[in-house]
Write a structure and sequence with these properties.
The structure is a homotetramer. By secondary structure, chain A is α+β, with helices and mostly antiparallel strands. Chain A contains 14 helices and ten strands. Chain A has one domain: DD-peptidase/beta-lactamase superfamily (Beta-lactamase, 3-Layer(aba) Sandwich), CATH 3.40.710. Chain A has a five-stranded antiparallel sheet with strand order 2-1-10-9-8, with helices on both faces. In chain A, helix 3 runs antiparallel to helix 12.
Chain lengths: ~300, ~300, ~300, ~300
């Protein structure tokens, strides 16, 4: 298939939609971004890459970082991790707190905020220090994307910390059930920092190769995780990757993926490629408006849905 | 691959697990079944079929019937159906009523009971009579399984009706929000009847071919639904097919599937085959204990996960 | 105190408020009532009575009937009744179903619909037949009001039955938890019928005397219940008598009371008098708009709050 | 009535119950208390006082302090306070977070923890500093109890702070809805400090006189609040004073009251007296086991229920 031609086609068709939706504005730093931006990148397991739009411009990856921290936790912990966080979809956002309460502080999956905070806590316990934890998270992201200069935007992390009272509430509630080892504020701060990593669509599509290729990065020839682990991360991305629109995403796109409120979405075609699309304004579910449509166009045009 | 050998292997490995778990006993008719039974069937899109165990013995398909009624509703209604029922996973069972209330009587997906009752209501409205509706549901199931003598077990349907107060509560609550056109008791009765259809694993694996082959049955050469509809039904099976263990099933098995409290589970390998496994005792999530393990063994041995 | 003068004063002050609010319109029969009506009656334990407005006009007592069925159940059952229904306020109406589910089908108090349906069920079990149950409820109401011709409006009961899907949902849910002995539809029908009793403010104020006078009706010289039972019914009216505005009512009025969606409110000044006020339009909590204000004016003018 | 004789009688009857129940142990400092203690005090509006047991021994007043901060807030703010906190009972403790979420961060009443934290926040905003706020709270408590040496136990406050993750979660959630002006941790710290005030039953019964006498302290001849404010505080104590056993307390005791996990309960007989009872072990609702029984005995023996 001529992926470059398909990307160009999508780019033309998506143009009327770019700028629609609403840029995340719950923190001032994210609200500043120009909404009229779009980029899409594909990197295949053969090492081919295809791009359209501003594919070298870095943006705040936000919740996409949860895929990376979950991967790291899987390499450190085995079954005991699932006593602390489940792999089930979470239902409506309204229920986030009531579910956490009903289920005694065990978040339903690693991709809701509560679950990602528990994962971050597990990393801090392993590395014994939050600074070393962040160094290792950054190191892992640099490794899988084969890009040494990826970094955190400290202004975004600080802005999140100043406004993230709901996430602090979640962390304190989890702590009250005994499911955080470390101080809740430390966990939330570390979580906000890894969410504030900045990457481009080119770098993120590249970073997905280990998940597209059974845990083994075919370009760097590094084995990051086992085939079973890769399969499972993809499964959790499919069922839980898009908050309360995960079912819709499976229904319309049909690929494992993970979105972030910065407007990025990563996706994986198992055995074939990593994909990343970016456009800042969000739809009502908090996923990139144009990005979601672009991915739906992609699977329609290529037939590359897993279903 | 030598599927017969793989099935035999699974059968040997599963034997110690047969009988573990708990047969559904909320209605006396289902509680009567012998727990020490197991069957597994594969039917490929090329028309090959492979079986182990009691694959010709019919059992109560229960919630597996929801796949068939959802398919029928999709051929009758288009987007307006999604105003009445969503495609999102539903969270914990505890939330079934609160979610329905919070979301104003719109069930989250067609595979939870509330959603299936709305789907049944939509069919009754279309066929204008509950008897004709049941005739059409039976006709559709006979068509996709290419088996003319499939029928309802009236004792099971009657037993459900005598004990199904929770489903009546759901139907009345949905009606109170205006999301049922017909009388709630009529909807529940019709729903209980299509759940009481009896089929064997051989028949159910065969009946999955239209979903495994883009809506087109390669053996009977009938086009039941469009490729897009098939893709979407598979997506909803993956994200919502196993109640509150849908994430676990995607995680461990990695195939679109649907379970029933009669102990049956159907699954689809897109482009390749329909699968059905059956063993009556259930695990704590209400899915067949041995059946779930058998399907996990199957994807592990064959590598046929979609991830 | 010159109660007649106080009632006249209240009547003058309340006039600008009569007609404000919204008549209950969830059933056509209740929606037909003229909203511009008002009446208020006082009957003291000495047998004096004072009235303003249309105090002889009968209206649908609706939930006020729950006070009478609860009283009857208390005379039949002792502590075992509290295993089936609690005496705690119920929180927001949104939670009605979730609380019932969380608390395994035990309604929080006898004055929410779920609790009143359980009380009705307990009466049907005692009288062994729903017709005899209704005869006894009517008999009790005629006794405490000393008015032999009080009756049910069958059109209102029928209209409720045709539209009361939410109450049917509640009854079926309670039944699913095993907390109804009789058929849920029979319980709901009987409940709707006793809610459809019609009385005037004069008759209802009179009927409150047994609660104002320690269980003993000073006029008819009948002892309906013990002093402890009277005290407890008053306590439950105070904490639970006005749905999710029970706290507001205690706060602003400061008397045990019970409202109905027909626009009536009964209240008790312990040791002194029974009160009833009626005006059909309701405030946002489902309690009589003008009636609530009239009772607040009454306790302000007389200082007869229990606090 | 010979109140001293009645107290002595209660003391004899209560002896077998002293020590039953479970001392609050969620913080080490509270768990240290000797469970076999009991005291009860009455102070009448005429200035008579009656005591039994260890009525001069100070204990941690905990949530009883919420009555005092609510009183202070009422003297500072008028109707605008009720936009930030309601006066409705709160339903089951399970719902505390879901109700707060469903009701957009507006706690249902000033006596649940969430509501008391909002009240504390309102005081900090008024006094512009948390130290001055605490000074004023202490000043007010010293005034109403006419006891200049009442103080905070800093070890208890510190212990709460080290373990109070659930209260921190509540405060952060309220802040996320914009219903705290000050830093959530500052609010929680100040709240924990005023809960750590220590008083005896003699002092607390004395401190209730302003509520028993329409806002005016008959002994010190100070008018702390208006009669309407006193009436309303009593109403909120009756409907919301004992968490999820408020209905039970109204039902069995029939007096406005407020309990604390330190084992104290204050109560008011309007127009007549202030009461305080203390015994550390708690019943399953978190209210003093022996204390609740003692108060029920008191109203049974004296007939002083408000109903």
């Amino acid at each position: 298939m001529d992926y470059q031609a398909i990307l160009e086609e999508i780019y033309q068709e998506i143009k009327p939609h770019i700028g629609k939706g609403k840029v995340a504005d719950y923190i001032p730093e994210l609200a500043k971004v120009d909404p009229n931006q779009f980029a899409m990148s594909i990197v295949t397991v053969d090492g081919e890459s295809y791009h359209v739009g501003e594919y070298q411009k870095r943006f705040s990856i936000q919740s996409i970082s949860k895929v990376f921290t979950f991967t790291m936790a899987l390499t450190i912990y085995s079954k005991e991790l699932y006593k602390r966080v489940g792999v089930e979809p979470s239902g409506s956002p309204f229920n986030s707190l009531v579910q956490l309460e009903y289920e005694h502080g065990i978040p339903r999956n690693p991709f809701i905020n509560a679950g990602a905070i528990v994962i971050t806590d597990s990393l801090i316990s392993h590395y014994q220090d939050e600074f070393i934890t962040l160094e290792n998270i950054l190191g892992f992201i640099r490794d899988i994307s084969d890009t040494p200069d990826i970094n955190i935007n400290p202004a975004v992390a600080k802005s999140e910390m100043e406004h993230g009272f709901r996430n602090r509430a979640l962390a304190n509630l989890i702590k009250s059930f005994g499911n955080l080892d470390n101080d809740p504020i430390t966990c939330v701060q570390t979580y906000f920092k890894h969410c504030a990593v900045e990457m481009s669509t080119a770098e993120l599509a590249r970073a997905m190769l280990y998940l597209a290729n059974h845990g083994y990065d075919p370009l760097s020839q590094k084995e990051f995780i086992t085939p079973t682990q890769a399969k499972r991360i993809n499964a959790v991305m499919l069922t839980c990757g898009h908050y309360d629109a995960s079912g819709e995403f499976a229904f319309h796109v049909g690929l494992p993926g993970k979105s972030g409120v910065g407007g990025g979405i990563v996706a994986v075609v198992p055995g074939k490629m990593g994909i990343c699309v970016w456009s800042p304004p969000l739809n009502s579910y908090g996923n990139s408006y144009a990005g979601t449509i672009a991915l739906e166009l992609f699977t329609t045009k290529t037939g590359l849905s897993i279903f």
